Fold this sequence. Notes:
Layout: E1 4-9, H1 16-30, E2 37-42, H2 48-54, E3 60-64, H3 81-86, E4 91-94, H4 97-103, H5 107-120, E5 123-128, H6 132-136, H7 140-151, H8 157-160, E6 164-167, H9 181-198, H10 201-206, E7 208-212, H11 217-224, E8 231-234, H12 241-256
Parallel strand pairs: 1-2, 1-8, 2-3, 3-4, 4-5, 5-6, 6-7, 7-8
Helix pairs in contact: 1-12, 7-9, 11-12
Bound molecules: phosphoenolpyruvate.
Amino acid sequence: MRKKTIAGNWKMYTDIHESADLVKALKEKVQNAHSALEVVLCPPFTSLVVVGSLIKSTRLKLGAQNMYHEDEGAYTGEVSAKMLTSTGCQYVILGHSERRQYFHEMNDLINLKVKKALAIGLTPIVCVGERLDEREKGVTERVVSAQVKGVLRDLRGSEIEKLIIAYEPVWAIGTGRNATPEQAEEVHQLIRKLVGQLSSWAVAERLIIQYGGSVKPENAEDLLCQPNIDGALVGGASLKADSFGAIIRAAEANLAS
Ligand code: PEP
C-alpha cells in the first residue's frame, strides 16, 4: 500500500529562529497523526540541523529542497547528498519548477541528482509539471511525459519505486489556483501508466505520486481522495502550523474513509 505522504516545502522562508518556532507549533498538530501518514518538513539548508534536532523522536521526517550530485569538490555554494544525510535528512526535493525556472536546471542534471540521492539512501521527491502556456496549447501530456522519462533515465524498477514523483503544474504553484481534483488525477494516472511502461506495473503501483500547487485546507480533502493522488507537496500553506495541520487532518480523514 502506498503511504500518503505530505511534505512541506518552506522554500526560502524562515531563519533558524522562525524555523524552530514553526516546528514547535507543528509538533503539537502532528503528534497523533495517523500511522499510515508520512509527514516531511523541508526547511532551508540553514535550518536543517535545528529542525532535525527538534523533530527527533517525533512522527516528523526531515527533507532538503535541493542538493548537488557530486560527492565533494570545488562547487562553491553547493551541498552534497552526504552533507544532507549527516543532518538527519531522509528526503530531498529535486527538480522543483523554481529550480528549473530560475536556476536553469534541466532533466539531465536532475537525473544525475536523483541517482546520487538514491545511491546514498535519500528519498528524492522529483517534481514535474507543465507551464500555463503548455496546458493551454494542449501539450501537458507530452511535456510531463518527457520530464518523467528524462528524470528517471536509466533507473531500475527497484530504484524508481523508492522515489516520489510530485506533479506540480507550474501555473498552480504559489498562485492560489490549484488544479481541480479531476485535472490532477488525470495527470497522475498518466504518470503511473508511463512508469508502468518504463518499468513494470508492479513498480508503478508502488510509486507514490504527490500533487503540489496551491494545496490548502479547503481543497486538500478533495485532492487527496483521488485514487492516484498519494499525498501533497505543500508550499505556502506549510509555513503556518494551523494550515499545515489542517492539511494533515484532511489527509487523515481520507485514510479513515
Ligand atoms: C511548492 O512550492 O512546491 C508549492 C506547491 O507551492 P504552493 O503550495 O505555495 O503552491
